[in-house]
Amino acid sequence: MDAIYLLQLLLNGLVIGVIYALIAMGLSLIFGLLGIVNFAHGEFYMLGAMLSFFAVTDLHFGYWTTILAVTLVACAVGLLFYHLFLASLRPADFERSILLTLGISMVLQNGGIFLWTVTPRMVPTPWSYTAVTLGDLQLPLLRLFTLGIATAAFLALYVLLSHTLVGKAMRGLSQSRDAAAMVGIDHRRVARLAVIIGIGLSGLAGATLAPVYSVQPTMGAAFVFKAFAIVIIGGLGNIMGAAIAAVMLGVLESLIGGFFPLTLADSAGFIAMILVLLFKPEGLFGRGVRV
Amino acid sequence: MKRLLIAALAACLLATAAAAQPAPIHIGSTLPLTGNLAFFGQHSRWGTELAVAEANAAGGVLGRQIVVDYQDNQCNPAVGVSSVTRMLSDKTEVALLDGVCSSVILAIMPVVQRAGVPLVVANGSATAIADASGAGGNIWTFKVNPSDASLMEALVGWLQQNGKADGIGFLGEDTDYGRAGVQAFEQALGKRGLKLASVDYYQQGTADFTTVLTKVRRADPKSLALYSVGADFQNLIRQYFGMGLTIPLTGRLLTDQIPPEILTSGRLNGGTAVQPYTAEIDLPANHAFVAAFQKMHDAPPNLLSYEAYETTRVLLDAIKRSGTAEPAAIRDALTKTRLQSVLGAEIAFDDHNLAHNNAVIVMIKDGKVQVVGLSKT
Predict the structure, then answer these.
(1) ipTM confidence
(2) Disulfide-capable partner of A89 in A93, A201, A252, B273 (CB 3.0 to 4.6 Å)?
(3) What pTM does this model have?
């Protein structure tokens, strides 16, 4: 076997996995805290990418300024999203939450098509076609940035959940809402923060990936279903589990695609999800907000 | 009381005026208006809108205005069949246009046959559509754009003349469109004792092509034929360029959708493609079409918009010649079509209800797309 080819596939898979993780972590956090499967998550990712396009082309923002600005706007959108739609939901409203977020997803996607049409847009950067070469291995620079940003986002979330009081409150709330209330945790404030962070992460993903992939209103669908599979494989609400499952899936897809028809690689995530649901329904790393 | 009488009189006059207007002619159109190919559906719709606007501005067809009912099929055969069945159940549509996606067209062909309503295909290119149409098959389906088989025959013939037909790798979407592309390539190469060096497919809607491009780099074909459209093509071509690949591109390379910075870099020089259309064709009728399209939609036309424009003209011409706007009469009129194409050729249908318009061979030279020839399909 060609060792360089194998290494290149592993490297590609690692980056693809990290991209999946960036989208899946927010989804997992919102489910872990609120018990809501946010079907509109892909559309928040799309809005982040679309906003990045306008920030770069109309406002002439730089790469890093765009990422920061879009993430902050996404956090604000998360706040609005929570107060307008999620705050009134009770734990028993699971079906209602699915229909609600599905409806929001459709409105956002079709609203995007109405406003911006489906013409694919590209976000130009000075490094759009620059690659880093390590011997015979090659990695586009923007993907390297994505790798760094996603790792930083994961570490920040890890520190927040494991080393801060609010993180402890989040973990407590995910374990038992009643017990958390008994020890004085305001579940609304904690849930609101989780939604702000979750939507902020999808905005960050959109801004980071806008220069990597073409931007258009239906782009969310390409990743969000894989993100769902990842969240289930990693354990619903388990952030660390989602991140590990995402990287595992990225590498697995890359290896399958490298040695077999690529179309088989796309089904790998869903086959893994079915197997997990059959044999380990709580996910590979267990349910609940964990780090 | 007086005011009431005046209002009633005005209402009666308006109603009489409305009744005097002849009823519009309704045409159905099934397109991907959402999903990964929505960009293509949008351009196809724009092409139809231009042809209909021109016809309506000239007084309509048979003295009646044309109204098109656009339905989204998401490039999904099941959704296409459902929407077409719904449209035809109203019995107001006298004919249908397209489907854009070959898979959808193949799925709705039996539906239009049962309903006895003509389907005029503008964009779907699978050879199987024409193979199943006309004599001994579905007499209600007509295909205006060239089939993959005729396009690839034109391309491979040109490549062979220039010593470039050997060692071609193939990368395309895993749909009837991509599969028909492989079949057409293999057929055209087989006639010349050649075959494809490698074949790879990807799922429609794929965003990341690094894995398959790494595989292509390793296979190192002499040239790479692409069968990719929409947002997939945009992602594919950017990642191809970003990964530093220099394998000459061919196939259905969408030269009008290559980002300018990639095209002008010169790295794609030598790429050769076949298309049913490109806006660069230097013919007066094409200049007029491009200007009218740009004015109406504030964007240049692409091959989808051209094909839909030309196809809608063919259908409107047939409705006019039918004299009655009844589906069976329109079908009979379609079989006798003789219409001058924007590309210079005369559009007429063969025994399989397939038209044989000109195809365009384009080449990328010095960072620019150049038309190197028109070839009858």
Answers:
(1) 0.85
(2) A93
(3) 0.78
